[in-house]
Amino acid sequence: MKQYLIWDLPIRLFHWLLVGTLLALWYTSENGLIENHIKCGYFALSLIVFRIVWGVVGTRHAKFTAFFPTPSRLKKFLIDKREPPGHNPLGALMIILMLVLIGLQATSGLFIDDDIFSSGPYYGVLSSELEKIMNTIHHNGFDFILIASAIHIAAIAYYRVVKKRDLIKPMLTGKKPDNDVNEKDGIAHSKIITFIVAATAVGFFIYWLVVLNAPVIEEFYY
Predict the structure, then answer these.
(1) How much helix, strand and coil, in percent to the nearest 5, is found in the chain?
(2) pLDDT at 220 (0 to 100)
(3) At what angle are helices 89-109 and 71-80 packed, to 10 degrees?
(4) Nearest-CA neighbor of 159 among 93, 47, 83, 57?
(5) Largest Cα–Cα distance in the chain?
(6) Mapped to the 3 state alphabet, what secondary structure does 10-71 carry?
(7) Is residue 112 within 8 Å of 61, Cβ to Cβ?
(8) What residues contact residue 207 under an 8 Å CB cut-off, 6+ apart?
(9) Nearest residue to 205 (alpha-carbon basis) of 8, 95, 47, 34
(10) pLDDT per position as a tens digit, 8-24
(11) In degrees rounded to 5, what are phi and psi of residue 177?
(12) What radius of gyration, in Å, describes the C-alpha atoms of the chain?
């Protein structure tokens, strides 16, 4: 059975690094490892920003234009049930939901503190009302991420058991068999040079955001 490259290397790295980062965020939060938790949060934000960038400059199936769940795409998929080579519209909805949820979780963490030792780099720049909103988002958002993750895992299991399609292996190898995709659906390569440039730019942006641009909040002791 012939195999065709569908998922580029950057997409696969993003996917599995995000899984690992979410586990690390949960573990560090549950065990009070706040400094490590903050660093994991920065990395999660880096991954989200990178995925947005890669959705514009990445390979064919990674681009938002290829899978964005427009009403017409959703309607067509629900009617004929034909699977596209990349993300189907329902899967695309989950991707966008996860990007929004994790992006909100990571961003809100920049503006809060743990009431003990640590605080985000932008803690103190917002009004007390907005800080309360950020605290609410951050302390409740992970529950929604867990729910979305459970739905995602259930969908993978459904495809494996009911539709007899393995979604995990292609996200490891990047390739799908010719009974799922056609030769014309394959991509030639993973655009590694573009990936290096994009990842480097995102790394510099996050460093600028959380270190160079972070305001110095004056503290007064009486």
Answers:
(1) 65, 5, 30
(2) 45
(3) 130
(4) 83
(5) 74
(6) HHHHHHHHHHHHHHHHHHHHHCCCHHHHHHHHHHHHHHHHHHHHHHHHCCHHHCHHHHCCCH
(7) no
(8) none
(9) 47
(10) 999 999 999 999 999 99
(11) -75, 165
(12) 20
| Regions of the chain where pLDDT drops below 70 | 115-117, 217-222
Contact criterion met (CB below 8 Å) for 174 and 5: yes
| CA–CA gap between residue 50 and residue 180 (Å, rounded) | 28
Helix (H) or strand (E) holding 195: helix 192-207
Type of residue numbered 183: E
N-term to C-term CA, the chain: 74
CA distances from 19 to 62, 103, 206 (A): 18, 14, 20
Distance (Å, rounded) from C-alpha 134 to C-alpha 107? 9
Locate the DSSP E strands across 107-215.
175-177
Question: Do 84 and 176 form a contact (C-beta atoms < 8 A)?
Answer: no
Question: What does the chain come to in residues?
Answer: 222
Write the pLDDT tens digit of every residue in 13-66. 999 999 999 999 999 999 989 999 999 999 999 999 999 999 999 999 999 999
Quote the Cα angle for 28-113-105, to 5°. 60
Measured CA to CA, the distance from residue 122 to residue 80 in angstroms comes to: 49
pTM score of the predicted model: 0.93
The two tokens of residue 115 are: 């009431």
